[in-house]
Amino acid sequence: MRSTMVHARVPKSVYELLKRTAAILGVSISELCRQAIMNYLRELRETSFFSAMQTLQQQKNGDCYA
Question: Which of 17, 25, 30, 58 is the right S-S partner for 66, CB 3.0 to 4.6 Å?
Fold first, then answer.
């Protein structure tokens, strides 16, 4: 897997929260952010899948909103 460096400006309080959380979990801030992004993308895929299935079911039922 290729890693990409991302530079982002965040408020100091957010950075401190990330730093404390990463320390408690025993991971780096980068790993914490990577896992959060991966989880967010997983949630988006699941939401998209269920939305698509609902649309297919509505079309099958002849629902005028589909």
Answer: 58
